[in-house]
Structure formats: C-alpha cells, structure tokens
Amino acid sequence: MKQALQKEGFIQLHEGESWGQLTPGRYYVTRNDSSIVAFYLAEGDLASQGLNMVGAHTDSPCLKVKPQPERVQKTLLQLGVEVYGGALLNPWFDRDLSMAGRVSYQTESQQIKHVLVDFEQAVAVIPSLAIHLDRDVNQSRSVNPQQHLPPILTQLDEGETLDFRALLEQQCRTQHPELNIGKVLDYEICFYDTQKAAVTGLSGDFISAARLDNLLSCYVGLQSLLKADGKRSALLVCNDHEEVGSQSSSGAQGNFLQSVLQRLSYNSENYQRMMDHSMMISADNAHAVHPNYADRHDAEHGPLLNKGPVIKTNANQRYATSSETSAVFRQLCEINDVPVQDFVVRTDMACGSTIGPITASNIGVRTLDIGVPTFAMHSIRELAGSRDAAMLHTVLTAFFNQNSH
C-alpha cells in the first residue's frame, strides 16, 4: 500500500515529527508498520466540509510462531504456534505452508532495527491423521490447537536440533544482503499457505484466495482513494488487530486515527465540527448465503455472490449502520447502477463485529458497515465473487468524491 501511494505522489508523514500547517495535497502515515492512514486534503475549510472516510483492517486469522517454538518429536522438528484470531482450523491441515513476518535484530554497532522476511517456498506442513487411525474422524474429530497444530519443518538426526532465531538470521541475510544483520533479538512470524490466488468457476465467477478477509477491502479502498478526483477531502484507514479485538496502539481501539484527525483539525472545536460533517464506511466482508447451509441465514437476508455489496445491520450495534448512513450508501449505489444487498444475522445466532462500532465510538463519526459477500470466512482459503469487488470500487470511489451527505 505504501508503494502504491508513493507511486501516486502521496507524501509520507511521521507521527514523531511536526506536521505544521499541511497544504492541500496527498499524504499518508503508518503506525507499527501494520496500520496506515492515507488522505487527500482538498481546498477549503476542513472543519465545515468534513472528510469522507473508508476503514478496513489489515490482519487475518493465522498461526503465529511462539517465542520459544522448537520441539523435536520422533526425529521431526516442529514449531509451536498460537492461533491468531478466530481461525477455521481444519483447512490448515495438509497445506504447503511458508513463513513470513517481521524480524527485530541487532546490528554490529548495537542498534536495534527491523526488517520484513518471507521464506516464500513451502517449508512446513501439518499432516492430517490417517482415517485408518481414527475411523470416526468424519463424525467427531476436533482440533486441539496445542497438540495438533505444530507444523513440521524438517527431519533431524538423533540428538540434533535447530535454533529458530539462527534460521531467521540466515534467511534475513540471504534476503537482505545489503543490511548489517547481526543477532536476531525477536520476531513476529506467521505461517501462510503458498497456494496462489485464482479466478475459479466455469465462467470465472469466483476469486479464491487467502486473507480475502480483509485484504480485499484494503485493496478496493486503496484503489478507490487513488481514483478519487481529490476535490473532496477523503481518508482511508486500514487498522491492524481487528481479528483479536482491536485493542492495541495500531488497532481501531487505539488512538491512531483519532490522533491523525486531531492534527488535521488543530483544535477541539474544529475537530468536533469536522466529525459532524464527516462519515465513515467500514468495509469488511459479509457472509454470503451458502447453498449447503442456507438455514444458517435469515431467509430474507441471504447475500448472494456477484450481486453487489452488502449493508450489514445489527440492532445491538455489533455493526454501526444506521438508517441515516445506509440511506447515503443506497443512494450512491442507485446513482451508480450498483445493486445492493442486506445482511442481518439470524435472531437466534450471535453476531460478529468490525472496526465500525469501535471507530464510531472512538471519534464520534456517523458510520456504516458494508462488505462483499464471502464464503469460508476465516478459512486458510476464502471465496468471493469476481464481480463484487469492482462494484464496491465504483461505489467507494463515488463516496470519496461526494460533496455532502
């Protein structure tokens, strides 16, 4: 996202530096290298005009390597993992897995620096137990995350072991030979599926990929911001840690977005006026009605793939949608010839949530929750309609260009 913004002339700001009085233009700022706010500043008074804002999240459920992960069982080296977020665990078995993430290291001059690393090749697998050893597997097998999820990386000779930090150090030096990498101090490394994304279906109807929740919304939001005409002040925020509750400095419950908005408004009164003239669209994938499990949906609220973006509503504010904000979105869809759908969870089922209600309560802005219909949410590989992203892009671009609500 940073590369795409820089290519289009966005200027990077840093939280620890003075911004002064920003002139109209394009800017972005990051926190923790995992959350980003990018925005246009248009001509005119921001306090009386407000901002059109779109929000999404950058993280997805996965398996995260523990601090002391090495274990050898029956000559096989495994790494202990934690489950990040509400992952659907069974699909992680029998996949070609690799590792990627951030490594914090010490240079020879004792400086602490950070670098991204990606093993790229398949380096691990979590094999299933054969059906011959568990005849009731298709009726009753459950996954114990502590016992059943440690991936296998390699086979070792008797008494041999492997230091994971030393492995990371070697990979960093191979991938970044220009850096003065000494000792690896710590890391945030996750496993991921090496299978590439694909357009599938007899007529190319579907997108099959990892982490569609919620990188699809991040991508569409970014492309919409880049295509906006810049005549209206507009902002995109993509927060980390939504899948684990957003309680972090870079999550939606942190003050990242609020601090950026406060710096743009310069004083408390201008901030309150700006929020009153602003609106946020929280974009996070919606549950499409599954043909094999149609009874899990309310009969009148079953979104279909490739039939347009979905307005998500919940009476208990698990989604931030109100009639005021949904009316704005419905009108935008109508003007731009984009169909719109509705999702309400069954009254006898629990409802998930998004950054929408958190952001609305944090900064006091009118908010709407929407998303594209998706199957297999939180699986290692998810499925969406190949035409829905384009329809959402059309509406979000129009929203960024909209003069008033």
TrEMBL record:
EC number(s) on file: 3.4.11.-
GO molecular function, one term: aminopeptidase activity
A Pfam family of this chain: Peptidase_M18
UniProt-listed GO biological process terms: proteolysis
Enzyme class: hydrolase
Cofactor(s) essential for the protein: Zn(2+)
Domain of life: Bacteria
Keywords, comma-separated and alphabetical: Aminopeptidase, Hydrolase, Metal-binding, Metalloprotease, Protease, Zinc
InterPro entries: Peptidase_M18, Peptidase_M18_dom2
Annotated GO CC locations: cytoplasm
Family statement drawn from the similarity comment of this UniProt entry: Belongs to the peptidase M18 family.
Protein name: M18 family aminopeptidase
Taxonomic source organism: Methylophaga thiooxydans DMS010
